[in-house]
């Protein structure tokens, strides 16, 4: 009897369609894909589409419920609720004492939280002094007064509640007795900053009724289908959390749609350094990836900062289906209206013959739009030319790609537009004019990400995902002089990302000058959090960061729900192919490429190279490093670095000396160089630490299980 398959199911809830995929957990092979319309107007909301896709997946994919080991889905519900103001009124029980009482009263009130232009969150406030302690009767009276004013869910927030959460927990406990939804501020964030912490908890609470309804409906339907596997939800930081955690902190699902695509870029496309563009029909989400990690920032709502970490995904209003605007004989813009919004088809997907008439006109898709958006009628079919059509005409789209279209229709439509609106321009010239307007929108965001995160252009690759990737990414890359790839199965890349994403949680605390004990404590707390959500303890990895400017100590833990790893031995490359992959990743003049170390499935290569700037006027000799796995995936790129090869028994002292030799001293004091450590196929990132003692303490915990003579490799970046 053959072994039972182990299948991970990912579901991406998009604006128009809900995509679902089934992936073999051992080989990462795509077993089935399903697409259903997103059910915004159904009584059950988007949960209906999620459930429908699961049932169709079981039926059409010939999948037994017991074969599924995990289901994860992204959701736009939290984001849409905020944008549309579809949230619950929140009652706030503020608390404080002594000299801080007046401050606590004002900072817990949270009046006038703007969710989107013209949409405000309704809040009500009561304040309880705590000098003499609180009784359950006092809390109950305050909660009842808030409910009488119209509050639907309650938040308990006290000055310094992160240090002593007893009163916040009392508010939640009393609400539970009253059968009222409630949340305590300290469970949402453990950072100081009462105003921001309260605001974050209030927004979280406002989402709870609707999000809980969807979660309960989804979970019950999945269980009724006979699926007992964990049900996970995408987080805004690119990880997943279990449904119990989502019920407690629904705010963490904000922007989880773009997060799913970025998770796929990391886990499936295996990007180590680059820019990921997920291109749909109407918009494109753009994010940066560095050292194999997506870059994150503090979330905001209505321009106000929250204590929530979100991926830095930036959205532009141009994509594969954007409609060009032509006025005064030139293309003046592409988008933001799409063919979908304008109720037009793509010329690329409209069959025709040489005898089919093509007419051109300009329209206003919406009442307030300018009347210069291009419409073509092919026979009797209303359509438009789009970046997808233009990319086909310029040879950017390979046959079989999701963007590949009817070449005859594309050429005839572009020729007609060029003749009528662009002074007789050819199909190619018309196509180039469209893409030359569309690509700079993406280019400006990419350049901003490179600048904001000080990324090395010589190590960047543009990676395209989404159904419209071929329409935007190749031309943008060509215009910027950067290499590009289109991710495999790009139309369902977000669903793949949901299926493969790691269980994740982040713990943040306000700590001035953290000690080794502080670091080990927060590491343990983050590790325990993801294990509670279903991560296998042996799979957990934790990165600790010290933000000395804001006195924030942060630990981010990730792990998988099962420890068994996929067998990819049939996909391992031979030595010559590995070396060739490394050479391809090194740009510029390369000399003396050597293997410096081997750590499990990872191999470390170091080269001597010459980097040229300003047309070759400036030259600098460097020692670039590459860490590559047996599949030929570049896992880490360092433009100029040094390598230390040691054993576990000597690693602590050797790493201390290694850091000491490459530490800079400046006006601000000691600055550790970026450090990575490899062993047993793992790469640990210590770039967030600020002292050698912190590195030594954390490294000791990470490698204590190794044999004394096992190889440990340290890599330092000198740039």
Layout of strands and helices, then pairs:
Layout: E1 7-13, E2 17-24, E3 30-37, H1 46-60, E4 68-73, H2 77-84, E5 90-96, H3 101-107, E6 113-116, E7 119-121, E8 123-129, H4 136-149, E9 153-158, H5 166-177, E10 182-184, H6 185-188, H7 194-224, E11 231-234, E12 240-242, H8 243-248, H9 256-267, E13 274-279, E14 284-290, E15 293-294, E16 296-301, E17 304-311, E18 313-316, E19 322-327, E20 330-338, E21 345-346, E22 358-363, E23 373-378, E24 381-384, H10 387-393, H11 407-421, H12 427-452, E25 461-465, H13 469-480, E26 484-486, H14 493-500, E27 503-510, H15 516-532, E28 541-547, E29 552-559, H16 575-585, E30 589-599, E31 602-613, E32 618-622, E33 625-629, E34 634-638, E35 641-647, H17 648-661, E36 664-666, E37 669-671, E38 675-679, E39 682-685, H18 692-703, E40 711-717
Parallel strand pairs: 1-4, 4-11, 5-8, 5-9, 9-10, 13-25, 21-24, 25-26
Antiparallel strand pairs: 1-2, 2-3, 6-7, 11-12, 13-14, 14-15, 14-18, 16-17, 19-20, 22-23, 23-24, 27-29, 28-29, 30-31, 31-32, 31-33, 33-34, 35-40, 36-37, 38-39, 38-40
Helix pairs in contact: 1-7, 4-5, 9-14, 10-11, 10-12, 10-13, 11-12, 12-13, 17-18
Describe this entry's structure for a reader.
The longest helix has about 30 residues, at about 195-225. The protein is built from 18 helices and 40 strands. Helix content is about 30%, strand content about 30%. Helix 10 (about 385-395) packs across helix 13 and helix 12 crosses helix 13 (about 470-480). Strand 36 and strand 37 (about 670) form a beta hairpin. It has a six-stranded mixed β-sheet with strand order 3-2-1-4-11-12. The protein has four domains: about 80-210, 3-Layer(aba) Sandwich (Rossmann fold); about 265-500, Nucleotidyltransferase, domain 5 (2-Layer Sandwich), CATH 3.30.420; about 500-560; about 575-715, no CATH class.
């Amino acid at each position: 009897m053959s072994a039972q398959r182990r299948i991970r199911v990912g579901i991406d809830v998009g604006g128009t369609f809900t995509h679902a995929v089934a992936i073999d957990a051992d080989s990462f092979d795509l077993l089935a894909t399903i697409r259903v319309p997103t059910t915004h107007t159904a009584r059950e909301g988007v949960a209906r589409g999620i459930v429908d896709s699961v049932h169709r997946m079981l039926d059409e994919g010939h999948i037994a419920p017991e074969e599924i080991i995990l289901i994860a889905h992204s959701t736009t519900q939290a984001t849409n609720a905020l944008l549309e103001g579809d949230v619950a009124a929140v009652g706030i029980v503020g608390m404080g004492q002594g000299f801080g009482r007046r401050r606590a009263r004002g900072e817990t009130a949270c009046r006038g939280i703007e969710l989107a232009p013209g949409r405000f969150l309704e809040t009500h406030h009561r304040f309880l002094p705590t000098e003499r302690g609180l009784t359950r009767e006092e809390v109950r009276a305050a909660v009842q007064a808030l409910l009488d004013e119209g509050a639907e869910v309650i938040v308990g927030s006290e000055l310094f509640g992160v240090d002593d959460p007893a009163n916040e927990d009392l508010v939640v406990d009393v609400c539970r007795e009253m059968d009222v939804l409630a949340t305590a501020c300290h469970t949402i964030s453990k950072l100081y900053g009462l105003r921001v912490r309260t605001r974050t908890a209030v927004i979280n609470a406002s989402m709870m009724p609707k999000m809980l309804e969807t979660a309960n409906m989804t979970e019950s339907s999945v269980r009724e289908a006979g699926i007992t596997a964990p049900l996970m939800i995408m987080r805004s930081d690119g990880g997943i959390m279990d449904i119990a955690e989502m019920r407690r902190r629904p705010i963490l699902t904000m922007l989880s749609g773009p997060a799913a695509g970025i998770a796929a870029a990391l886990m499936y496309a295996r990007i180590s350094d680059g820019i990921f563009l997920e291109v749909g029909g109407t918009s494109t989400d753009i994010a940066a990836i560095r050292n194999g990690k997506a870059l994150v920032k503090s979330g905001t709502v209505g321009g106000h900062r929250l204590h929530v970490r979100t991926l830095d995904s930036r959205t532009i209003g141009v994509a594969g289906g954007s409609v060009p605007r032509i006025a005064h004989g030139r293309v003046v813009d592409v988008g933001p209206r799409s063919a979908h919004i304008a109720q037009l088809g793509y010329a690329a997907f409209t069959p025709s013959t040489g005898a089919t008439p093509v007419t051109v006109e300009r329209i206003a898709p919406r009442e307030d739009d300018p009347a210069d958006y291009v419409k073509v009628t092919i026979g009797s079919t209303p359509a438009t030319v789009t970046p997808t059509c233009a990319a086909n005409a310029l040879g950017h789209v390979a046959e079989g790609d999701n963007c590949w279209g009817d070449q005859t229709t594309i050429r005839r439509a572009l020729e007609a537009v060029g003749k009528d609106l662009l002074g007789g321009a050819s199909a190619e010239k018309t196509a180039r004019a469209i893409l030359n307007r569309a690509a700079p929108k993406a280019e400006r965001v990419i350049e901003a990400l490179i600048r904001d995160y000080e990324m090395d252009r010589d190590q960047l690759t543009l990676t395209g995902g989404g159904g419209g990737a071929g329409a935007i990414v190749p031309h943008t890359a060509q215009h910027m002089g950067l290499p590009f790839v289109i991710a495999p199965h790009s139309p369902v890349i977000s669903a793949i990302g949901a299926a493969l994403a790691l269980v994740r949680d982040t713990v943040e605390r306000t700590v001035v000058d953290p000690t080794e004990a502080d670091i080990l404590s927060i590491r343990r707390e983050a590790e325990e959090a993801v294990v509670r959500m279903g991560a296998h303890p042996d799979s957990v990895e934790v990165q600790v960061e010290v933000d000395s400017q804001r006195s924030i100590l942060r630990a981010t833990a990730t792990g998988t729900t099962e420890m068994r790893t996929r067998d990819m031995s049939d996909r391992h490359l031979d030595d010559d192919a590995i070396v060739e992959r490394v050479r391809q990743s090194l740009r510029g003049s390369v000399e003396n490429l050597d293997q410096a170390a081997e750590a499990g499935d990872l191999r470390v290569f170091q080269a001597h190279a010459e980097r040229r700037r300003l047309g070759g006027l400036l030259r600098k000799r460097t020692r670039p490093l590459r860490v590559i796995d047996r599949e030929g995936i570049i896992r880490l790129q360092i433009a100029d670095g040094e390598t230390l090869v040691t054993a576990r028994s000597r690693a602590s002292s050797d790493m201390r000396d290694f850091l000491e030799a490459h530490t800079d001293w400046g006006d601000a004091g000691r600055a550790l160089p970026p450090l990575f450590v490899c062993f047993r196929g793992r790469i640990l990132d210590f770039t967030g630490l600020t002292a050698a003692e912190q590195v030594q303490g954390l490294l000791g915990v990470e490698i204590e299980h190794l044999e004394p003579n096992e190889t440990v490799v340290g890599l330092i970046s000198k740039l």
